[in-house]
Amino acid sequence: MTYGSDHALTCRACGTMVEPADRSPSCPDCGGDLEVRMQPLPAELPGDAGGNAPADLRRYEGFLPTAGTSFVSMGEGWTPLVNAPTLADASASDASQPVPDIRLKNETTNPTWSWKDRVAALVVSHAVASGADRIATASSGNQGCAIAAYAARAGIDRVLVCASPSSEPPHCRQMRAHGAAVVTLSEYDGRRSLLEALADRGWFVAYDLPEWFGGQPYVYEGYRTIAFELVEQLGGVPDTVAVPVGSGAGIYGVWKGFRELTAAGIVDETPRLFSAESTERHPLACAYNANEETVGFDHGPEPISTSTMAPTADDRALDAVRESGGAAYVVDREAVEAAIRACGRDGVFLEPASGLAAAAVSRALADGAIDPDETIVTIGSGAGISWPETTAGAVGRAPTVEPSIEAVADAVSFSLD
């Protein structure tokens, strides 16, 4: 199959169609953002068609722009959607009200433990199709791990990850285990100029650079599969989906998925999307609350949710919140840590970014923005195990004691009898 024969790139601003093989980073007519348009979508989801569809991203082969690529897959996607009773109990705003129905989309079960694997599968596949033999990216953790793993799987030997000073050792070790060269940048704000210099040298940059074709616009295509899975797993569309926001690509991708399912007649409605950001940095919420058309910058202190520390977000994320009838929420460190503990009791250890979304659900229920009778989904975007320092405040540290009953009894909060 010819490369790109199943999709076109369409300008969101003026509608100009661009052939994928042209590798244009933006609209040649107006400079607007390009996004993938499948031509056409299948008429039904795999579960509706019967048979034995793969339990990974290949399940949605007809929905994904993979024509002409050797699709790199490692079992990403089709992640569990589990009940979160402890989070639901903690989120109940009034004892007289019913306990809300909260489901957790557990993205920690992806191969490198985060939803970035959905992105890497598409981006690396297109990098290989373009003839790339070297890939570079910048990352605070999850994306670097995903790109490194999928690039290794694709047989790409030269992979460079420019890590943030806030990246924790487990992530850097994981990237190195996948064969990537990892450097920590002393000034992370300089990552774009560095990546542009690498692009000048012929590197495929899996990062959004305005003047270069890279991971965009295929990033959104990986995230939109979350919408497909939710519809299949629930047997319909949830009422509300809460999504952590850094750059905003995730929430827009989920919205794009639901929007396309509706346009194709596969579902009749879309959910409301609630964005979740930290009190330290919340550029999307600032734009939403001020009724701005574009998202500005928020250079506040670095939040506990390191992977959402971007000082700005994609305008498409703002569109997703508004078009869906949702809202933009801001939550503080204490609420994030409480959400991590609650989800931990439900069996899932979340990273702080995921705690943002779970905490936002609690806030929205308390505000009355979400009705407890609704079907609510919170996206658990990544695993807490990779962030030992930033999760320490939520879960504490294990004490070292002598191997005696007395010493252990003094160290734990319950009776040993």
Automatic annotation (TrEMBL):
<dbReference type="GO" id="GO:0004794">
    <property type="term" value="F:threonine deaminase activity"/>
</dbReference>
<protein>
    <submittedName>
        <fullName>Pyridoxal-phosphate dependent enzyme</fullName>
    </submittedName>
</protein>
<dbReference type="GO" id="GO:0009097">
    <property type="term" value="P:isoleucine biosynthetic process"/>
</dbReference>
<dbReference type="GO" id="GO:0003941">
    <property type="term" value="F:L-serine ammonia-lyase activity"/>
</dbReference>
<keyword id="KW-0456">Lyase</keyword>
<dbReference type="Pfam" id="PF00291">
    <property type="entry name" value="PALP"/>
</dbReference>
<feature type="domain" description="Tryptophan synthase beta chain-like PALP">
    <location>
        <begin position="72"/>
        <end position="382"/>
    </location>
</feature>
<dbReference type="GO" id="GO:0006567">
    <property type="term" value="P:L-threonine catabolic process"/>
</dbReference>
<dbReference type="InterPro" id="IPR036052">
    <property type="entry name" value="TrpB-like_PALP_sf"/>
</dbReference>
<dbReference type="GO" id="GO:0006565">
    <property type="term" value="P:L-serine catabolic process"/>
</dbReference>
<keyword id="KW-0663">Pyridoxal phosphate</keyword>
<dbReference type="InterPro" id="IPR050147">
    <property type="entry name" value="Ser/Thr_Dehydratase"/>
</dbReference>
<dbReference type="InterPro" id="IPR001926">
    <property type="entry name" value="TrpB-like_PALP"/>
</dbReference>
